[in-house]
TrEMBL record:
<dbReference type="GO" id="GO:0006357">
    <property type="term" value="P:regulation of transcription by RNA polymerase II"/>
</dbReference>
<keyword id="KW-0010">Activator</keyword>
<comment type="function">
    <text>Component of the Mediator complex, a coactivator involved in the regulated transcription of nearly all RNA polymerase II-dependent genes. Mediator functions as a bridge to convey information from gene-specific regulatory proteins to the basal RNA polymerase II transcription machinery. Mediator is recruited to promoters by direct interactions with regulatory proteins and serves as a scaffold for the assembly of a functional preinitiation complex with RNA polymerase II and the general transcription factors.</text>
</comment>
<keyword id="KW-0805">Transcription regulation</keyword>
<dbReference type="GO" id="GO:0016592">
    <property type="term" value="C:mediator complex"/>
</dbReference>
<comment type="subunit">
    <text>Component of the Mediator complex.</text>
</comment>
<dbReference type="Pfam" id="PF09637">
    <property type="entry name" value="Med18"/>
</dbReference>
<dbReference type="GO" id="GO:0003712">
    <property type="term" value="F:transcription coregulator activity"/>
</dbReference>
<keyword id="KW-0804">Transcription</keyword>
<keyword id="KW-0539">Nucleus</keyword>
<dbReference type="InterPro" id="IPR019095">
    <property type="entry name" value="Mediator_Med18"/>
</dbReference>
<protein>
    <recommendedName>
        <fullName>Mediator of RNA polymerase II transcription subunit 18</fullName>
    </recommendedName>
</protein>
<comment type="similarity">
    <text>Belongs to the Mediator complex subunit 18 family.</text>
</comment>
């Protein structure tokens, strides 16, 4: 899948106005959501996913509107309905990480009323949900955006390859047994609006909250602390506006061009409303890890530490 996107920034005092404008533009109501976002660092040396026994996804329900059409997925027989489901995207992900190590994210949708307040006697402490291993989460991998445009300047519209594997159980365990190490976590606050006439066109107002230091060390905390104890990553509370368009078929340049044109049209139509989309360095979005190589000095002296470049 390809993701093309524009980026702008919205001050906290302008948030309500910006959300109202986007809702009117899309003829659709915003969908406010909270996400628990866990960051995992891949192994020092790239390798494929050798251990897959814990992979267990929730099988997607077949689309009832597709029944009877060519290529439609038929309902599962009752005997197979409870069988382990492995999303085909896991194979694609394994092929990618065997060539290059990355930082990946595991995302869980959470509720302010239920999932926050644990460990401090908050209102959600007695209503905590299942452990993360038993909750459906999503694995996200993103490539560094494609290089600057042919014209020589950095493109306003970024485009990158992306993998999203939704509704996965045991996600932290699968990553851990394949040598992905837990790195950090954030709480993401988002307000998403989808265009009524083009559902592939998505607008997201996003900002992030950091957990207290006592909840961030070692491993993902369970449960989350009170929401009021979180600290905004940006002290001013500024929001990032993402305007995204997804192209499912990587090998369809005409669809990628159409998506780019659609985003530039959005840029032009929202400009009178004060949205100022920024040209950013593509390295801001780089999730690749530098390889830890053995130098001749290491091989000769048997040193444990690397004399070459390590992880970023």
């Amino acid at each position: 899948m390809y993701e093309l996107f524009l980026t702008a920034f919205v001050n906290d005092v302008d948030f309500d106005n910006a959300r109202s404008i986007l809702s009117s533009y899309c003829w659709s109501d915003p969908n406010p959501r909270l996400w628990r976002v866990l960051h995992f660092t891949g192994p020092a040396q790239p390798k494929h996913l050798a251990k897959r026994t814990n992979i267990n996804g929730i099988r997607p329900a077949p689309d009832p509107f597709m029944f009877g059409l060519p290529g439609a997925e038929l309902p599962m027989p009752q005997a197979q309905a409870g069988a382990t489901y492995v999303d085909p995207a896991w194979k694609d992900f394994s092929e990618i990480v065997k060539k290059q190590s990355y930082i990946v994210t595991a995302r869980y949708q959470v509720s302010k009323a239920i999932d926050f307040g644990g460990g401090g006697g908050g209102p959600g402490a007695s209503q905590q949900q299942k452990p993360l291993t038993a909750m459906p989460g999503a694995l996200f991998w993103c490539e560094i955006p494609d290089p600057a445009s042919v014209a020589g300047g950095q493109s306003l519209v970024m485009q990158r390859k992306k993998i999203e594997i939704w509704d996965q159980l045991n996600l932290p365990a699968v990553l851990a047994e394949n040598e992905f190490r837990y790195r950090s976590q954030l709480v993401e606050e988002s307000h998403d609006v989808y265009h009524r006439d083009d559902p592939l066109l998505e607008f997201s107002l996003v900002r992030h909250h950091a957990l207290p230091a006592s909840f961030s060390a070692g491993r993902p905390s369970e449960p989350l602390p009170a929401f009021e104890s979180l600290e905004r990553v940006d002290p001013a509370g500024k929001w990032t506006l993402w305007v995204k368009y997804h192209v499912r078929d990587d090998g369809a340049p005409e669809k990628i061009k159409a998506a780019r044109d659609a985003l530039l049209k959005v840029r032009d139509e929202l400009a009178p409303c004060g949205f100022d989309f920024k040209v950013l360095d593509r390295k801001v979005y780089d999730t690749q890890l530098m390889l830890q190589r053995k130098t001749p000095a290491m091989q000769t002296l048997g040193l444990k530490q690397s004399l070459g470049p390590g992880h970023r």
